[in-house]
Give the backbone structure.
Amino acid sequence: MVTTNPPTLRRASVKATPPMRDRLEEEFTKLRAKGRTYEEADGGYTKAAVDVTVDDSSRKGDTATLRVTEDGRLHMPFTAGEVAAGAPEYEEYSLSHTIEFTRQPDGGWLLSSDQADAGSGPTPSTQLAQPDTVDE
């Protein structure tokens, strides 16, 4: 969503609970705006390459939980010559997620939660960061 050409998603195409669909719609809108800000500042990210690895899974009743790692590269708008001269080709990140699905009465599963965990590192550009707090 933060690239210069973000995908177009229709609300109906997201198989999620209504509250999660609302959250995703809001987050996708904010992430597209964030991508436009990056583009205006320095050309933005031209493309993203993302791999997801399932680290663990469990099921308790009507809730299935996946723990996954998202490994991504956000490609910069620099030419091969600029990269050869030292400009970065891409920004790389790794981010853990805990994702939950809820079984519906018809037996289908809907995304109900996605909690990203940046740990102690910086929040990747693909996430909406919460403002840091300062203890006074």
Q: What stands out?
A: The beta strands are 47-60, 63-75, 90-103, 109-117. The radius of gyration is 17 Å. Helices lie at 18-42, 80-84.
